[in-house]
Design a protein that fits this description.
mainly alpha
């Protein structure tokens, strides 16, 4: 079962959408990245299963999509903006995820993204550790300690 392509394909879907390959997904706070990723991912699908290109953003709108990477509705975007999500393409059975992930690993820019993602995760774990445990600081010295140091 583990060596079957369908099983490996399902593992890739989970890794991209919720796991260790999440760095492949576009960053929502970078202007234009979701739209570019959507239009690029379209070409990994066969022509008969390819969705239409992402429409241009409404005038004066900074947000690319009215949803996040998980497809959750973003209520902070103006009304009437397009609801486009990357995950329906990532989870599509017509996407050759093995070739797609292999191409991401071969791309220098994607490897740089992976490196940055790793640094962000290290900082995140450091911050969580600090918030849970803090740094041990002994600001109050006993009189005995001060005498011993002198």
């Amino acid at each position: 079962m583990i060596t079957e392509v369908a099983f490996f394909d399902r593992v890739l879907v989970e890794a991209i959408s919720h796991g260790s390959l999440r760095w492949i997904l576009p960053i929502g706070t970078t202007r234009g990245e979701k739209r570019t990723a959507y239009n690029t991912l379209r070409f990994w699908l066969s022509k008969e299963h390819r969705p239409e290109a992402a429409p241009p953003p409404p005038a004066g709108e900074d947000e690319d999509f009215d949803s996040d990477n998980d497809g959750n509705k973003n209520t902070s975007s103006p009304a009437g903006s397009p609801v486009l999500s990357i995950l329906p393409i990532i989870t599509s059975p017509h996407l050759d995820r093995i070739a797609f992930v292999r191409a991401c690993w071969a791309s220098d820019s994607m490897m740089n993204r992976r490196r940055l993602w790793g640094q962000v995760k290290q900082f995140e774990s450091l911050w969580v550790d600090y918030r849970k445990h803090g740094w041990q600081v002994d600001r109050f010295y006993s009189l005995d300690q001060l005498v011993e140091e002198a």
